[in-house]
Design goal:
The chain is α/β, with parallel strands linked by helices. It has 10 helices and 14 strands. It folds into 2 domains: 195 residues, 3-Layer(aba) Sandwich (Rossmann fold), CATH 3.40.50.720; 100 residues, UDP-galactose 4-epimerase, domain 1 (Alpha-Beta Complex), CATH 3.90.25. The strands form 4 sheets. Strands 3-2-1-4-5-6-11 form a 7-stranded parallel beta sheet, with helices on both faces. A 3-stranded mixed beta sheet has the order 12-9-14. Helix 4 links the parallel strand 5 and strand 6. The mean pLDDT is 95.
Length: 340
């Protein structure tokens, strides 16, 4: 198939966030115009690259999204309240900002006559399946966040196909690197470890730390995402984006971070979080076949770059900025009774 005409104007939600800001950098370097929105719940304003036409706005504001998308070729929906563990205790907040926000985003993109809509889903869609997760597995999400991401995928596919807009579902997972929000106690385990160790804190590990994950360096995710703007092979596809090697436990990750920072590792092992999947990593075979994907940054090198960035900015207190809608005996005590 022939490559589609290059996009000239790209819209990115979550542009002050980790992935969205790096993606914006890549498109600006290509000479494209980038329009971006963010409500700053999960990002830093200084993440927004110079050159982005930035608007502080919420994806749930359909009229605003439709107005800002005028003349846009491709829409990337990167924004999400990506709180998988917290979604068990704040399901309304998470669902509103995953499912409802996506319905507004894709509707605005269609109404604005965008050519393609790229939705960033989550490995949480697979839930408790045999690893590595491949795209042809029947999704079995185990928590409200995963359920919401899968529902949002179905909305994107249904509406895009009904109205003749190309769609792609990208499934990036466990991304690390500079610009990641590290003062958020609910997500981004590697960043939480770094911020905690810089403050001389003990690390909180849920369960025995045997949960296993793969981690993706941000540049290795941005490269295939860029191709999704134009590649004909990606249209109408769900594609995992991330490595399927270096499958490490959370405890091994903590040990590696402490070693790279040259600090003593002290851990508190807390009760397991409900609905947490023990083993989660994705096959990269489809991304290799369709996009020539190959990760270039090892876990250790990626952690080094993230540690250097957080150290340069300085440690920050953890901000418990999301209200718990449900507090029960299952709620992690570090969330319901934050440390001083």
């Amino acid at each position: 198939m022939r490559e589609a005409a290059p996009a000239q104007r790209v819209f990115i939600s979550g542009v002050a966030g980790f992935l969205g800001s790096h993606l914006a950098d890549a498109f600006l370097a290509d000479g494209l115009e980038v329009v971006g929105v963010d409500n700053l719940v999960g990002g830093y304003l200084d993440n927004v690259p110079a050159g982005v036409s930035f608007h502080r706005a919420d994806c749930n504001d359909f009229a605003r999204m439709r107005a800002l998308m005028q003349g846009v070729d491709v829409v990337y929906h990167c924004a999400a309240t990506a709180y998988e563990g917290l979604s068990v205790f704040s399901p309304h907040f998470v669902t509103q900002n995953v499912v409802t926000a996506t319905s507004g985003m894709v509707s605005a993109a269609i109404a604005s006559r965008a050519r393609r809509f790229v939705f960033c889903s989550s490995m949480a869609r697979y839930g408790e399946n045999e690893v590595p997760f491949s795209e042809d597995l029947a999704p079995r999400p185990q928590d409200p966040y995963g359920i919401g991401k899968l529902a949002a995928e179905l909305l994107v596919r249904n509406l895009a196909e009904t109205h003749g807009v190309e769609w792609v579902v990208a499934v990036p997972h466990n991304i690390i690197g500079p610009r990641q929000k590290y003062d958020d106690p609910y997500r981004n385990v590697a960043a939480i470890f770094v911020n905690s160790l810089l403050q001389g804190r003990r690390l909180s590990i849920y369960g025995d730390g045997s949960q296993r994950r793969c981690f993706s360096f941000v540049s290795d995710v941005v490269a295939p995402l860029r191709q999704m703007a134009t590649s004909p092979a990606c249209a109408g596809q769900v594609i995992n984006v991330g490595p399927d090697d270096e499958f490490v436990s959370v405890l091994e990750l903590a040990q590696l971070v402490a070693r790279l920072m040259d600090v003593e590792l002290r851990c508190d092992f807390l009760p397991p979080r409900p609905r947490e999947v023990p083993f989660a990593n994705c096959s990269a075979a489809k991304a290799r076949a369709l996009l020539g994907y190959e990760p270039r940054v090892s876990l250790e090198e990626g952690l080094r770059q993230m540690i250097d960035w957080i150290r340069a900015r300085g440690p920050r207190p953890f901000l418990h900025h999301v209200d718990l809608e449900i507090v029960s005996d299952a709620t992690p005590r570090t969330w319901s009774t934050p440390e001083p």
